[in-house]
């Protein structure tokens, strides 16, 4: 690979290079484009994100998800890592099948980079309330009043209690221009009593 054809780093640069490979503008075969790191479709900055792809990067760190497919002796392995639309930061690589496996960890890394301390944000405790809360000005104000200054305008995530194990995080969309991150429901008193009883036997 020549110096002018080296795969770059950073989410936006990688996405541009991915399309160069896919459009046969490099020495690599277009069908190998899936093996290059690129923004996962549907995520901010991705080819199929309905938020679009701005020409100028955001003025603040903005999380997104990178993915690629790696050939293996039997089939392919999907890999994920967090990315930022503003700087060249990239997170560690996670193998997985997606849908909460591998991609969730990468998305969380990206939020650690863009919104350190996001795990302390107040969660929405019922999944059916996540859209109602954003549409109801009073409820939305109550929720986001506990966010650090400026985070809401920068697209800080909404936290929602998970309904089941490894429920996938949701990327931004027109109805909600921020990630919806699933977080574990805290144990109830009933769970604690059951655990205490189990320890006796």
TrEMBL record:
Segments of skewed composition (Basic residues): 167-176
InterPro entries: DUF6349 (IPR045930)
Region annotation Disordered: where it falls in the sequence: 29-79, 167-201
Compositionally biased tracts (Basic and acidic residues): 177-201
Protein name from the UniProt record: Uncharacterized protein
């Amino acid at each position: 690979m020549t110096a002018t054809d080296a795969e770059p780093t950073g989410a936006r640069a990688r996405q541009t290079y991915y399309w160069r490979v896919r459009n046969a503008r490099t020495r690599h075969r277009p069908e190998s484009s899936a093996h290059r790191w690129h923004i996962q479709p549907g995520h901010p900055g991705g080819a199929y994100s309905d938020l679009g792809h701005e020409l100028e990067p955001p003025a603040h760190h903005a999380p997104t998800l990178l993915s690629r497919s790696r050939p293996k002796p039997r089939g392919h392995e999907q890999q994920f890592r967090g990315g930022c639309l503003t700087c060249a930061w990239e997170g560690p690589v996670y193998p997985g099948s997606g849908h909460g496996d591998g991609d969730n960890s990468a998305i969380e890394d990206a939020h650690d980079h863009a919104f350190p301390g996001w795990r302390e944000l107040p969660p929405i405790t019922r999944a059916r309330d996540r859209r109602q809360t954003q549409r109801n000005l009073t409820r939305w104000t109550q929720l986001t009043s506990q966010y650090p200054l400026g985070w809401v305008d920068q697209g800080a995530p909404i936290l929602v209690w998970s309904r089941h194990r490894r429920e996938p995080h949701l990327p931004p969309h027109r109805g909600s221009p921020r990630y919806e991150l699933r977080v574990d429901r805290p144990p109830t008193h009933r769970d604690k009593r059951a655990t205490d009883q189990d320890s006796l036997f």
